[in-house]
Amino acid sequence: MNTGSHASDEAKLAQLVDKCLSEGPVIIEREGKPVALLIAAPADEDELEKLILQHCPRFWEMLERSKEDIKNGRVLSHDQLWQMVNEKSGPEATTPKPQREKRIGAK
After folding, report:
1. Do 33 and 23 reside in the same domain of the chain?
2. Alpha-carbon span 37 to 25, nearest angstrom
3. Which of 41, 47, 87, 102 is 20 to 30 A from 54 (CA-CA)?
4. SS3 readout for 52-107
5. Residue 18 forms part of a structural domain
6. pLDDT confidence of 92, banded at 50, 70, 90?
């Protein structure tokens, strides 16, 4: 097992991040084989979210299951969905009015 101090690990990571920001993607290898890729994060939050989801196997599995459900008619109407929510949440739950999404830090 490779050991080192926490401070030295943080310093190494900081160097890799700096290199990524100045020179472009950094390939991280283990035993001579690529195992990870360090890239600069997009400044736009929506673009960052897209990038993360593009590389999330769990998201793609959920999307495929959803497509199959739609294809096979296993869907709920808006009213059916909120009826189920209200049944599970109790009488205090109500159907929310559609709202625009507010981003953290948005004005």
Report:
1. yes
2. 7
3. 102
4. HHHCCHHHHHHHHHHHHHHHCCCCCCHHHHHHHHHHHHCCCCCCCCCCCCCCCCCC
5. yes
6. low
How many CB atoms within 10 Å of residue 72?
8
Identify whether residues 54 and 78 lie together within a single domain.
Answer: yes
Pair type for strands 33-38 and 26-30: antiparallel
CATH of the domain at 3: 3.40.1620
Residues 6+ apart with CB under 8 A from 99: none
pLDDT single digits (tens) 37-83: 999 999 999 999 999 999 999 999 999 999 999 999 998 888 888 89
Determine if the pTM surpasses 0.70.
no
Residues of the domain holding 2: 1-40
